[in-house]
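Entries read sequence, tokenised fold; example below:

***
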Amino acid sequence: MFLRDDPEYGLAGVQGLRSLRVPSSSSPLSPRVPLRTATTSIDWVPDLGAQIGSLDWWRGVATCTALCVATWALAPGIKPLVGAVPPPLAGAEWDEARAQGITAIGQGAATGRRMAANDLVAPLTEAPERPTVTLSATLGEGDRLDRVLMRAGVGRADANAAATMVAQAVPLDSIAAGTRIALTLGRRPDRTVARPLEALDLRARFDLGLALMRTAGGLAMHRKPIAIDATPLRIQGLVGSSLYRSMRAAGVPAKAVESYIKALATRLSIGRDVGAADSFDLIIERQRAATGETQIGELLFAGINQGRRKVQLVRFGPDGAKRDGAGAARTDGWFDANGQTERRAVSGLPVSGRITSTFGLRVHPLLRFTRMHKGLDIGAPYGTPIHAMTDGVVAFAGRTGGYGNFVKLTHGGGMASGYGHMSRIAVSSGTRVRQGQVIGYVGSTGLSTGPHLHWEVWKNGTAINPRAVSFAGVAQLSGASLRAFKAKVATLLAVRPGG
């Protein structure tokens, strides 16, 4: 019989293998079969995923359980390691360690080697002051320069002197709110008086800085002019799916986008006439200082290229009026490249609403008899703004009879318009109003059954149907104004995009 570890086992034939077979009538533990042969024929580690529930499977479960129990029983115990803890320091050892340690002063530290005070140490009666103090202040909205300086610790005399010197360079009211003021206060003789002003530095204007320094003769002012590049900013791009979003994505400020849309709305319908393939073109006032700051102004040029049609509008004031430093309203308007402008009403009605009563004969809803209705009644919610249909002068603003709160505008050429039943009037008599300006708010004062606007229009003193009147006018430049306008158009169109 061949054994498993016999060198000729791998070469044994069928006859040799037959000699290893155990007779079917014999048990693996039969005395006639050697124990070594019987144990090797048993599979002690069968696959527990196959033949679940069979005798070989249960034998594998028993083997696994026995191995786990033996591992747990023979595993060595893990005991904690006890380390040596040094005894706490005390006495001289503690003082020596503390003297060499570092502790936060905020926690009351008193570390380091110190020597007790001797006869050479004299206690101070008060803590000494810094020779100079450097600080900054900010000019608030509606604030005054001298008050800001006094709140910062400058004496009244120095504050008034500094404000007087700054006023010689620029008007104090023209200094923008939020301007930062750098201050240096000097040494004072005692604590009962304010520190003297040694130096002051501020940006008085976008193109001018001012510095005040104390000299032997008192405060002296030094001007620091700042170079300014006034080249306008030109931005072009495609309209795309949204004119507003495309312009904002191109870097156009929101205020300039609003002015651009309002300007083009006088010549075409933004929602109907402007397509995705059209290209916008606009030029904005811009000032760039040599110190790096940039200041964006108002819209100067608004154009759109639709391929078949090109609209180019330029802001121009024939009378040369400009916006002053206090923010006064400009009197210029939008002219096309030929020097012609068309003034249109903001909408077909002075208030957003629906017509509830037309011009002509009607039965009065309160008086109950037929009479002439000399205007249009426009129903709108209480407090809705009422706009002037075109430029004019306020001839009357107040309460009058059945019209309640009433405003009358004269527009020139014998034309006038009236607005009644207002809840509140927003203009006063004698003032000039611009097209689209709010002159009041919808109400129900006077003989009225509900909140609405009564709108009348007169031609040479005779009431006419407001719907039959066109509030559009055309103005044409000529002479010196036209030449100045042409020069401005050429200058603006010469600006390179993104420059």
User: Anything to note?
Assistant: The chain has a mean pLDDT of 81. DSSP finds ten helices and 25 strands in the chain. The longest strand covers residues 294-305. The radius of gyration is 48 Å.
